[in-house]
Queue: 3 jobs
Job 1
Amino acid sequence: MIGGLFAFHLITVFPEINFKREPEQTHCERFYMASFQQAQTMVYAINEINNNSDLLPNITLGYHLYDNCVKLGVAFRSATALVSGTEESFNVFNCTGPPPIIGIVGDPGSTHCIAISSVLGLFRIPMVSYYATCSCLSDRSKYPSFFRTIPSDAFQVRAMVQILKHFGWTWVGLLYSDDDYGINAAQSFQKEVQLFGGCVSFSEILPLDNNHMDIQRIVQVLQASTAIVVVVFSTEAYLFPLMDEVRIFWENMFECSFDTVGRKGETMCTGQEDMRTTNTPYTDVSELRASYNVYKAVYALAHALHDLMQCEEGKGPFSCDDITNLKPWQLVHYLQKVNFTTGFGDHVSFDENGDALAIYDVMNWQASSDGSIVVHTVGVVDEGASTGKVLTLEEDAIYWNTATNKPARSVCSESCPPGTRRTRRKGLPVCCFDCLPCADGAISTLPDSIECMVCPDEFWSSPKKDQCVPKDVEFLSYGDPLGISLTTASLLGSCICSAVVVIFAHHRHTPVVRANNSELSFLLLVSLKLCFLCVLLFIGRPQVWTCQLRHAVFGISFVLCISSILVKTMVVIAVFKASRPEGKSAMKWFGSHQQRCTVLFLTALQVVICAVWLSNASPKPHKNNQYINSKIVYECTIGSVVGFSMLLGYIGILAAVSFLLAFLARNLPDHFNEAKFITFSMLIFCAVWIAFVPAYVSSPGKYAVAVEIFAILASSFGLLAAIFAPKCYIIILHPERNTKKAIMGRAT
């Protein structure tokens, strides 16, 4: 005998409790035709086995069928009735009643199976469910004799997640029935969704209560949600009132409806049936999924019993002599090992947890022309597929309730493109995020990057922040507008110096040129020309030799220039003293030879400073990225601050002494007193270089070089203009004043 538990009715009516009389039995209402079809499938399978001479020969199977009324109390009472009967008393010496059952097909509900298997497992009575999918039932320590021909929720959940991943849906709603099946499935689903980066959208995950189903509240939450995809885990009975109430809403809101169900069996027809007269759920044989699971469950028990009857001594957990008095617990050992193929070509076996092979059909709910809902198979989820492809979909067969008939996107946040990083929105699930651009100097090359990578020192982020590109190298080049201007000024100053040299050479015998040692004037012009030309060493890409020469040439040229001016000033003072009786011997100690030696000596000191500086801490090219992060400033390091300071300090000392002496000699009685022009030139020189220091320190990159060049040019032009402009003015425009009497102040 085989027991069967089916939901013949959907509603259980409990009698009124009255403690004055024996309570009445509950009764059930609302006949469920689909479940009756499943029970008839069990009867059909048993009859088919009894007519099969190869399976269980000389053994006839029988059955007891009970109703669970979709209520745990009724289901549990039905199970105990199958196991122990319904008689109120029995004779211990002469047991009477129905033959004992060898196993139970059912129950379809996970909650029912949990309660029933907890008891039947103590006696190792096999129970093969055809629709209970709760993954909790896979615990062999709690349910040692439970089997099922439908995959567990763990497989169904993974099947759902495979569909979500296929269409890129990461923002989904969740509805589940408030029972063991719904709760366990919902928990497993949330874990699986989080593993692939998705999340559940509703702020409150909605449990469906069979007795207190708040349809209006569910509809309101669905309407308020931004999720387009809603996943439902519910027993079939729960869906009837839900679908009746919200069908219109459902069709308007959701573009497509999918379901994953067990494999269906194909019904073999003779061709003589008149399908025009069979239009009831009982006669509908297009979707025999639960019925097919019942069919496989019956055959699994039959094959296990057949193997038990073929017992070989020593190959089982008990002696083969014991099978003459068959016990249900003996069947569990062989049920665990069943391995057969149905007449429809499907393989049936159980894993170590009593679960069936993980294979699901993917169903698509489609609207027919008459407005009814028709379910079509559009794919398969098979974890044991030999191809390695778990999900197979026929996308052309899927119906999408959209204008384009294409799947919509259901994401909380769109994918972040390269060049941005994801930052989670506070208080929302992990798949709700904002895309923030990477900071300057950082990139992200992959979509949905969590962090941005910092570029290497000599690289910078591209405008789109998706790759590191070499930084722009900045230096004062000849092609730069600023470089062109400074180069032009340098060459102009050099040309003016050359022109003055030509003028002075042509008029070298005139009093203006010969006054105050013409040799010093030519030396001063040469040094000024060098000052103008040294600017060219500061322009262009820094190289080792240009870095070493630029400050050395600059320092030596200016010392040569200032030394010449200093000696000229000293000559003016010596000449004035020699004009007095008491100072006639002054010029004897400061003749031409002494003047040249003084200039060479003072210049030699600067040469020594430069030589020591270059030998100990030579300036060299350096790529500096501290001024501007996005650029590399190519500059010359000074090598030694002390050396550079001594170079500038020595020039400053000579300039200060020259200024002081010229200032003291500015009121000498000569009509053409050169000390006045020297004083003015030194005033310009000192003002320029005093202003240079703070401007140089505060200028970044190539502008610091430009400031130094400007100081060189400004001071050089100042010296050239202040000292030589008055002389050229007389030589060219007023030659009548270029006489000894006019210079000495004796001419009228």
Job 2
Amino acid sequence: MQTNSTATAVTANLKHQDRPEDTGDSTDAETSRIPSEKSRRDYRFWAIIIALCIVSLLSAAENTVVVTSLPTIVEKLNVGQDYVWISNVFFLTSAAVQPLCGQLSNLFGRRHLALSIVAIYIVGSGICGGASTPAMLIAGRAVQGAGSGGINMIIDVIISDLVPLRQRGNFIAIILAVYGIGTTLGPFIGGIIVENISWRWVFYINLPIGAVAFVLLFLFLRVNWDKSAPAYEKIRRLDYVGNGILIASTVSILIALTWADVVYPWGSWHILVPLLVGVAGMMLFVAYEGLPFVAEPVMPLRLFNNRTAVIVYVATFLNSLQNYWAFFFIPLYFQGVKLASPAESGMDLLVFSLVGIPGAAIALLVLSKWGRYKILHIVGSSLFALGIGLFSMADQNTSTAAWVWMNIAAALGTSMIMNTLLPAFQASVTEADQAAATASWSFIRSFGNIWGVAISAAIFNTFTAKYAPLVDDDRARELLTSGNAYSSATKAFIESFEEPVRQQIRTVFTLALHKVFLIGVPFIGVIFILTLFEKEVRLRTELKTEFGLEQRETDESR
């Protein structure tokens, strides 16, 4: 914790802190600070942790609840082909606002931003629950996504303010465990709500949960921030141009990826124009952020002035891309090849969550214990590549034991990588840049999710169409080559045909999925190669921040 009276000393410490690239074990002086930090963790600290757990539960459950309820929602509101925007607009706004949220948290403090984004999430949920038209539902999902993007970012930022880098894994592991509960229970909750109440309660259920989180944050999240400058002066310091370029570029790219192979083919100008404009915009954004007259860039290029930061940033994008690649197509293997029902497929996928979440928590605890992340990245990428590589050989006759072990390897591998990348990125930059670093990392993680879904879907559609001539039935061949092969890979679709067409369709899906998983392996291979060149940056054991808990009067009188 820092008091207002020590603000000058904190600023001086920030200027003279260890260089980010310093390595080696912690000094005795640094280690001696840990007990004092622990002794300051009073009820307010743990109330904030509980609030962050509830916020994390809110975000985790919502994502999985909506996925399982989506078919019913689409039918009730007669959404039609625009159904893709119900999920993708959520990802779009979630990714786009994260760098801006990082800058706002530095200028106006963590408390105001945390309360605002939880309120935005609640409002978005209310709009979705009360939606009477597809446009209203999609608008609500856009608002909800903006809140979710801020939530995912602010959780890591607040933890960074309260706990030294070396110890952060312990507390992120706690929040991650709660997140795992939400992810695991989400599909079941969604099914129960849709079947027994109304699809609207898929969204309305967020209102009381969000209210509890809001109240806890309002009561206990009292942290220091610079109150000396007037609000209008801080507003002027926002990087409006940089944020505008980044948001516009992100929207352009995500529109192209949303429409690709769903509304228009990949080669259509409707896809190529926004995609190229978005990529050009990203290049312009990087160039603009490096200009000397940009006083406070939203994504400072100094964050990437060492190889560890660059490697972690690229690895985060690739791992996020491949994680959604696997998450969307492993269920397709169960349904389109093994002929599992949607409910059975959800049960089969539980292995991924039940192993991945505890695996991530254990990796974070190991990181806090020994402070070494490079070995976790190397082992994690190896396991991830092994699991996805084995799925490229799975077929109709693969035993339950075999695909369970494939799931375990893939889930354990990706969770070991993803949840230890942020501490590695934070270690490579100064404490003063923690919010900007966290927001930048969160952005690239969310950005990778959409690319993973789009690329893998394009591969699946391409190879399904390639192998479709193996099917004798004309109607089945037409459906498999229409660009909507993903929606056809279900037990109900396959069993609507008689043998031998039924078996032929399963063969087509098997061969197409082999390619999907096989092409995904090199992406993980790049992660493995990159991590070999990571520099093991020491994780700081002392907390130096201007945003710590406000000092209580009883402490100041000592």
Job 3
Amino acid sequence: MEPRTFLQSSLALLILVSSSYGGHFKSNPALRMDQALLTFHNQLTEEVQVFYTSDYCDKCLYQHLVTVEPSINNASAVISTKFTLTVRVESETRNATLCSWSQTYGEGGHYSIWIRTSEAASSPSCKHTVNKEANNEYLPLLVAALVLAILTLLYVVAPYIYRRRCTSNFIKTICCQGPQYSDECDGTHAGEAENNTTKTKPSRLRSLDTFRGFSLTLMVFVNYGGGGYWFFLHAPWNGLFVADLVMPWFVFIIGTSVVLAFRSMQRRGVTRLQLLRKITWRTVVLMMLGFCFINYSPRDGPLSWSWLRIPGVLQRLGFTYFAVSLLQTFWNQSEVPLKTYHWWNPVQDVVLYWPQWLIMVLLETLWLGLTLLMPVPNCPTGYLGAGGIGDYGLYPNCTGGAAGYIDRWMFGDNMYRYPTCKELYDSTQPFDPEGVLGTINSIVMGFMGMQAGKIIIFYKNRNVQILCRFLVWAVILGISAAILSKCTRDGGFIPVNKNLWSLSFVMCMGCFSFLLLGGMYFVTDVKGWWGGQPFIYPGMNSIFVYVGHSLLGFYFPFSWETSSQENHWELLFQGLWGTSLWVLIAYLLYRKKFFLKI
């Protein structure tokens, strides 16, 4: 999910020149997160130019950083510390590159680069010195991880100690002296345990609610800025960061939930017409929530059609739900067939749904055809890049290729204006990560979730078979994604790209989804080692938490204005605090048995 614009502008910082000085640098500018200070000292008798590019920016043009005057002059610049930078010092007088290096600089560090001619050689050289050591930017994250680990340990150990405290005769004598404790130690809980064992096992999958809640909790955290850490946000273009994972997981869960829910409704005698009414109503509500509320906030000012975004997260989730629900309504096996021998028995959960698979193949063929073969004006056919300064600046207005062109043709300016590639690639075209072409692969992702649901139904009460088939699907999808991407970020046939929802991205996320759902199914539904807390609470009230945090999450007490000099300590605490509040609200609603359903 895309973070708010004001968070992007403050956290996803450009590699920029903060100041350029003739003469000696006398005062250091205040550095913010993901920034370091470079001071270039020119001891040559000629002027030099300094250029840079980010190694994460695919085939990007070098950008001008500073000009350093000759004869013991210096100039300073603030640069980004997110990715490795390649810096090049050039002389126009000699028409040559004097020196070049690649380095990842530390946050808050002050560095000097001395450009001079060494005594041993006549050619100029660049020597690095550290004026101020970089901050330990990961210390807040480490502290937060330790605190969460301790809280988790206490949560696990405390009930165990409570249950075992009366097993020792000595402790039992102490804690059971009074009549008020006798029932507790001598049989009340045992009786309750006996009654609990006689209860029927709940049909609802805890692993599915836990998976949904885990995805939602992670989504809320990254929407609060992820503590200002770049790897918690979205990737600039190709590749995967943490925020890129959550929406595909949601889509996968939608597909699984549709299969399980529709099977239950069909067993209760719900007609096809009633199903159509239900899915149509839910789709309309989801899309209207996204269009009228999530894409607009009162803090944005008066509502205006000129900037109102038409695509969106809930719009895509709603449309994907509608598509997979239609598949399940019209091409579904109402009952699992009898166990008669057929050659296709090992893959019956695939073969029996061949009409659905045929539709998926046609949809994917459509995506591949439009993406790779559709002519786009002034752009190469099959272009998948970010435009801007990428690809050596040859295609600055081709952001997203066919996907971007279709969205700009359909929506004009009513789409996302701050794509994740804007900062790094200096792109000027709007691009919507929830656009039309990517929705095709969103349906494919939902269909993978449907396959997980079919496996659970076909192999009910045979947990080994369920887990093995989850693993098989994960391996198949993972290998397919590796082949398409060539196990590289930018060099594959079809790179892993969340903005485009590329085929390799969908397969990669399908692999992760099968593995995560299988792992949670094993520890919650099979072994019962974990009840899914605390993720199961937001997982059972996902619509309420998502809409609530989108509308109210940027107001007190969920968040507040940070200081002008932002730091990871404050932003990480704020993100964890806001996320914890929504988990707490979901828990209280769970206790009150309030679940917002559409």
